Amino acid sequence: MSLRFQRLILILLTLIILFTSLLLILFNTKKNIIFFYTPTELLKTNISIENKIRIGGYVKQSSFTKKKLNKYEFIITDNENEITIIYEGILPDLFREGQGTVVEGILNNKKNIIASKVYAKHDENYMPKSIKKELEKKNQWKKEYK
């Protein structure tokens, strides 16, 4: 075998390995993608039950109820439609009614989600209490929020 032919084989093998690894990555990410929906989008789409999804919106006022220790039920709305969320676990500190939230879980039916994770959204003015206290002790906390 000539040196030129050996280089050609090496280049072809490298391209085949790269193409195969690219295909594996693409097929794996296709299985693990979780789509984000609003309540209205969720009700309009034909998503099969028992699919893992993410839904975002606002926690509806007066909808939050504590069922048992670390078991909660609340409603997420986008001011058009509502979805009931059932969550068992510890909620984030910023979670409250009227606040934006993103919930990840399994679709139980078109109006219910069994949540596995709850994320609370905050704005750019958010400052954790521990950091705020430290800044106040050092007399560096002077920002006035509206």
Structural commentary:
With 146 residues, the protein is of the alpha+beta class. It has two domains: 1-33; 36-120, OB fold (Dihydrolipoamide Acetyltransferase, E2P), CATH 2.40.50. It contains three helices and seven strands. The chain has helices at 3-32, 39-44, 129-137, and strands at residues 36-37, 52-59, 65-68, 71-77, 82-88, 100-109, 112-120. The chain has a five-stranded mixed barrel. Helix 2 (39-44) links the parallel strand 1 (36-37) and strand 2 (52-59). The longest helix has 30 residues, at 3-32. The protein is flat, with a radius of gyration of 24 Å. The mean pLDDT is 85.
Topology:
Layout (H helix, E strand, L loop, with lengths): L2 H30 L3 E2 L1 H6 L7 E8 L5 E4 L2 E7 L4 E7 L11 E10 L2 E9 L8 H9 L9
Parallel strand pairs: 1-2, 5-7
Antiparallel strand pairs: 2-4, 2-6, 3-4, 4-5, 6-7
What level of helicity do the residues show?
25-40%
What structural class do you assign from the helix and strand content? Answer: alpha+beta
The largest sheet has its strands arranged as: 2-4-5-7-6
Rg measurement, Å: 24 Å
What is the 3D form?
A: flat
What is the H level of CATH, i.e. the homologous superfamily of the largest domain?
Answer: Nucleic acid-binding proteins
The termini sit apart by 78 Å
Order of helical and strand elements: HEHEEEEEEH
Instruction: Please report the number of helical segments.
Output: 3
Strand content: 25-35%
Supply the CATH class of the largest domain.
Mainly Beta
Find the count of extended strands (DSSP E, 2+ residues).
Answer: 7
Largest sheet composition: 5 strands, mixed, barrel
Secondary-structure arrangement, i.e. CATH architecture of the largest domain: Beta Barrel
Q: How confident is the prediction overall: mean pLDDT?
A: 85
Detail the poorly predicted runs: none
| Number of separate domains | 2
